[in-house]
């Protein structure tokens, strides 16, 4: 008899848990979908430097992600330029109005920011994008509702140089310029796993170059040599 009571209690508990899960899932899927910046938090930035490229304009795609399911119709994400921006519209950047489309069947989108190499000699400028709610989307994670795009004509030390130092040694702007010269491209703003093998190979090329030809660093007033052991 006692075992029967225990069995009935276990069945009741399982039923309650299943009901709770069903209700939670229903609540999750019935909530209005939300949007957030998927690659940066409010403490991060997306740098773009014209120091490493021979061109006057470029396009930076700032990625967005939806919390919720894909639907069978196009939707739009609304945003605005925040007052904290120091970049000038039409001088340093150009935006596609104040909304972008999330195509039917998708839960990701991008805000294409066209940036210009103009009036940057006095220092960096920043464009701060801020998501705003609309009929299609509420706001997502509170620390991912703004994205700062920094536009500069100076070299920008990659935020992940701690990892790159395994292949390239200690950072300096002179070494950074040498890397661009040898590689033919600058480092990406964010580390991509697919680039690790490439950085490993180019790190050896930079090392071998410095073995034969040390580079003078005007900033530190020192010679940069092959003083590390690349993988």
Automatic annotation (TrEMBL):
Stored Pfam families: DUF4843
PROSITE patterns in the cross-refs: PROKAR_LIPOPROTEIN
Domain of life (superkingdom): Bacteria
Name of this protein: DUF4843 domain-containing protein
Lineage: Bacteria, Pseudomonadati, Bacteroidota, Bacteroidia, Bacteroidales
């Amino acid at each position: 008899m006692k075992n029967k009571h225990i069995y009935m209690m276990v069945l009741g508990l399982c039923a309650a848990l299943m009901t709770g899960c069903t209700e939670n899932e229903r609540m999750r899927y019935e909530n209005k979908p939300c949007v957030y910046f998927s690659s940066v938090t409010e403490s991060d930035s997306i740098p773009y430097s014209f120091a490493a490229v021979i061109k006057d304009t470029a396009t930076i795609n700032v990625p967005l992600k939806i919390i919720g399911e894909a639907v069978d119709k196009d939707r739009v994400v609304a945003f605005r330029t925040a007052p904290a921006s120091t970049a000038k519209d039409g001088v340093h950047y150009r935006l596609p109005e104040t909304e972008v489309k999330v195509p039917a069947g998708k839960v990701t989108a991008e805000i294409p920011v066209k940036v210009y190499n103009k009036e940057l000699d006095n220092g960096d400028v920043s464009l701060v994008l801020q998501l705003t709610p609309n009929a299609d989307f509420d706001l997502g994670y509170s620390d991912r509702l703004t994205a700062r795009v920094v536009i500069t004509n100076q070299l920008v030390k990659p935020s992940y140089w701690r990892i790159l130092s395994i292949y390239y040694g200690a950072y300096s702007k002179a070494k950074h310029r040498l890397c661009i010269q040898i590689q033919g491209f600058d480092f990406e703003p964010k580390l991509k796993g697919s680039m690790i093998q490439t950085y490993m190979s180019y790190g050896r090329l930079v090392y071998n170059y410095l073995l034969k030809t040390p580079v003078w660093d005007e900033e530190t007033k020192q010679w940069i040599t092959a003083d590390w052991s690349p993988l």
